[in-house]
Design a protein that fits this description.
This protein is about 30% helix and about 25% strand. Strand 9 (about 275-280) and strand 10 form a beta hairpin. The chain has two domains: about 40-235, P-loop containing nucleotide triphosphate hydrolases (Rossmann fold); about 250-375, 2,3-Dihydroxybiphenyl 1,2-Dioxygenase, domain 1. The chain has helices at about 5-10, 15-25, 30-35, 55-70, 95, 125-135, 170-175, 195-205, 225-235, 260-270, 305-315, 330-340, and strands at about 45-50, 75-80, 105-115, 140-145, 160-165, 185-190, 215, 250-255, 275-280, 285-290, 295-300, 320-325, 350, 355-360, 370-375. The two termini are about 20 Å apart. By secondary structure, it is an alpha/beta fold. The strands form two sheets. It has an eight-stranded mixed β-sheet with strand order 9-10-11-8-12-15-14-13. It has a seven-stranded parallel β-sheet with strand order 3-2-4-1-5-6-7, with helices on both faces.
């Protein structure tokens, strides 16, 4: 086990924060350490807290944290906030809103920016949930952005999804029920001391939802104990936890004749090399430059008979392949084989330690396609 992984397993919060940053930045070395920690996962209960803006989700999460600590439980809070257009960072700052917990080693709080991702989650959220699980936390609470009824990505990560509503919604229950309403394992009518709480609950019953419907006043801690018990009960039946329900772009591979000149060009655009290595099996040197949640991989041949050398000789510098992350590489390979797709290799380890397969351009619409196992599986 690497030193950083060992420190995380021993409860070092600085090491945990350092690896969390690497995972958010999609650093290949950080993702490799996460894979190393994978055998330690499976302990935590992953809880998603979602709902429309103004429902009091952050206050509810704060109250849940207090209640869980009273019960001797440890937890991590992943608060997913909208991104700053300037810096790309989280702009609501749940770590600031939850300052009362900053000195409690039993609570780890991380604000994450969505970085433009739709569905209320950041793309690294699933990976961070697995990291907190591996770090020995009893609960991982994920608070989503609160962008509206399409915020359903939380179901791909959480074992238990809590949808938070508030009095005054009235007919809005009908309007949003086709979105986040259908993913609820538990409904919480927060701010239940306000007029209209009865109506919200009646609307939920009238729509036929048969999951628990609880009332809370998070600012006063009312109903929070009952919510914890409902979460524990609902969590006895796990959902499959997959990092992504659909493939996402991992990187673009670009064949280059001169690595240093190409790096200088991309650095002039503000990009920076995060990792460099040689891959003997492909006879290629690789430089990785993160771009948001994806990256550019510059590929330079290190032998005249390498695939990149042949590509350059035939086509010249340019786009070599597109790489997609998939939640289950083995399943994807099985489907491709069943459909007669032409694969260029069996799954094997490549740059950054990821497991990959190449699909021939003839089967992928004219582009060489690389499929990469998503790190959370």
């Amino acid at each position: 086990m690497t030193e950083l992984a060992r420190k995380i397993r021993e409860g070092d919060t600085r090491a945990l924060a350092r690896l969390a940053s690497g995972i958010e930045n999609r650093d290949p070395q950080a993702l490799e350490i996460l894979r190393e920690l994978e055998p330690a996962t499976g302990h935590a209960r992953i809880v998603g807290i979602t709902g429309p803006p103004g429902a009091g989700k952050s206050t509810l999460v704060d109250a849940l944290a207090l209640e869980l600590r009273k019960r001797g439980k440890t937890l991590a809070i992943l608060a997913v906030d909208p991104s700053s257009r300037t810096s790309g960072g989280a702009i609501l700052g749940d770590r600031i809103r939850m300052q009362q917990h900053h000195a409690d080693p039993g609570i780890f709080i991380r604000s994450m920016a969505t970085r433009g991702t739709m569905g209320g989650l950041a793309r690294a959220t699933a990976d961070l949930a697995r990291l907190m699980d591996a770090a020995g936390r009893d609960y991982v609470i994920i608070e989503t952005v609160g962008v509206g009824q399409d915020e359903i990505a939380i179901t791909s990560v959480a074992q238990v999804t809590v949808v938070v509503l508030v009095p005054g919604m009235g007919d809005d229950v009908q309007a949003i029920k086709a979105g986040i309403m259908e993913i609820a394992d538990i409904f919480v009518v927060n701010k239940a001391d306000h007029a209209g709480a009865d109506r919200v609950e009646l609307e939920l019953h009238a729509e036929g939802f048969d999951c628990p419907i609880l009332r809370t006043v998070a600012t006063e801690g009312k109903g929070i104990g009952e919510l914890v018990e409902a979460i524990d009960k609902a969590g006895t039946v796990d959902r499959p936890r997959t990092a992504m329900v659909c493939p996402t772009i991992d990187h673009l591979g670009i064949a280059v004749q001169n690595m240093e000149q190409s790096i200088a060009f991309y650095e002039s655009l503000g990009l920076a090399v995060a990792h460099r290595e040689s891959v003997p099996t492909e006879k290629v040197a690789v430089a990785m430059l993160p771009v948001g949640d994806s990256r550019i991989e510059l590929l330079e041949p290190i032998a005249p008979d390498s695939p990149i050398a042949r590509f350059l000789e035939k086509r010249g510098p340019g786009l070599h392949h597109v790489a997609l992350r998939v939640p289950d590489l083995d399943a994807a390979v099985a489907r491709l084989k069943a459909n007669g797709a032409r694969l260029l290799n069996e799954p094997r380890s490549g740059a950054g330690g990821h497991i990959y397969v190449f699909v021939h351009p003839a089967s992928a619409g004219g582009v060489l396609l690389e499929l990469i196992q998503e790190s959370t599986n």
